[in-house]
Structure formats: C-alpha cells, structure tokens
Amino acid sequence: MLFDTIAYGPIHSRRLGTSLGMELMPLTHKLCTFNCVYCECGWNSPVDHPQLPTREEVKAALEAKLVSLSSGEGRGEVLDVITFSGNGEPTLHPQFLGIIQDTCALRDQYCPQAKVSVLSNSTQLGRPEVVEALWLCDNRILKLDAATDTMMRRIDLPVNENLTVETLLRLLGQFNGDFTLQTCFLRGEHNGLKIDNTSPEELSAWYKAVETLHPRQIMIYVIDRKTPEEHLEKISRAEMEAIAAPLIAKGYDVQISA
Description:
The strands form two sheets. This protein has an eight-stranded mixed beta sheet with strand order 1-2-3-4-5-6-9-11. Strands 8-7-10 form a three-stranded antiparallel beta sheet, with helices on one face. It is of the alpha/beta class. The chain is built from seven helices and eleven strands. The longest helix has 19 residues, at 55-73. 38% of the residues are buried. It has a single domain (7-257), classed as Aldolase class I (TIM Barrel, Alpha-Beta Barrel), CATH 3.20.20.
C-alpha cells in the first residue's frame, strides 16, 4: 500500500487520532533504510535517482489541505495531528529540517490545536539537522522493534547490515526520554529464519532498553494490514496487555494498538 499524494487524508489513525498524512518519499515506490518484513508499503524498490517532492511542493500541498479543511470542506473534522510517515523513512529527505519548519508555521496559522508528528525508524539520528527538526515536533515517534542485534536485523532488515542495537540506543538517547518509543510485536518466519520478539529473552532485552531510554510514552502495536512477508502472526490483545503490564506497573505510559 503506497500513498500517491504528498498530503493525504485526514484519516483515522489507531494511535494518533484524526491525522493528515504527509509524504516525503517517492509516490511510486518505497524508499527506506529498513526493509521491515511487516511493512504495509512492501519491499524497497532499488531506484538510482528517486524523485522526491521538493520543500516548496510539500509546503504548497500542506497549505492547500489546511485551507480546504478550515473552509469547511473537511466536513467538520478537527485535525488532531499532521503526521510524517508514508512510503519509507521521512527523515531521509535532504530538506527535512526546512519542511518541518514550514509545517510548524502553517500549523500555527491554520490549526494551532494540531500536533506535528514524525514516525521514524531512528536510523538518521546521527544527522544533526534531523535531530534539530525532530526537536521542533510535538511527537517524535521513534522505532525500536527489538533490542538484540539478531532479532532487529531479522525484523527490520536494515540496508546497513552492520547496524547495531547499541548504535540505535545511543542515537535515541539524544532525546533524554522526550520521545515516544514505538515497537511492533510479531512472530513468524522469513527466509527460513524464525522471527519472534515476544520470547522471554527478547522481552528481557527490550525491557532493559526501555529502562535505559525511559521514553515519555511507549506505543506497542501488532500487524494490521497485508505484509510483504506472508508467514507472520498477529499477536493477541491479551498477550500485548501482558507485555505492557510490567511497564505500566512502573509508571510508564503504554499505548496498545492490537
């Protein structure tokens, strides 16, 4: 499932409410530093010179949507959030900082009640301009699908095969807990290798990572749409509640989408 316009929706998000989606990646294929086995956008498509929307195009598309909504064409919808996600990793855009600056200004002008959110896989947090942009956002929703190298690589299939959990934890640590940690829990198989980030060993490592990062919020969720890898299992609501329980008992704000 690919998004074919720069600004789309508003749609109802399981985790964020009424969300206006913003697409910074190509409109015809997925472009990401991960190739997650559960990604609703499918597998990465190798393209030598991907066509990305310009900063000016993104600003114009967003303003047109916000004008439309404020003029009553939104059928009375109150926008909760402007969300950067879509066909890959939004922070890959070379003009990401400028785009976020434009977005915050337009939000303040047309819908000051809305939050600006970015869903990111955390791999670009070594770029200072990306970190600066994320600090401007209301919600930094940053992925950590597993806290062991083996399982992280099996689930996320990073383009950089040498990426480690230690690196991701260091990058995430820059926010001093002022972010939302997002994890997809699943079981299954890919290329003959077992996938399961719900095992006692994996959960123990993940809980330790949570304690290290101490995020202000945790979002845990399950696969909800068709996945590129067919041999995956959706985790039950009861099991997700059991995963969340120890953290809730310690005072963490844990949101479950199952």
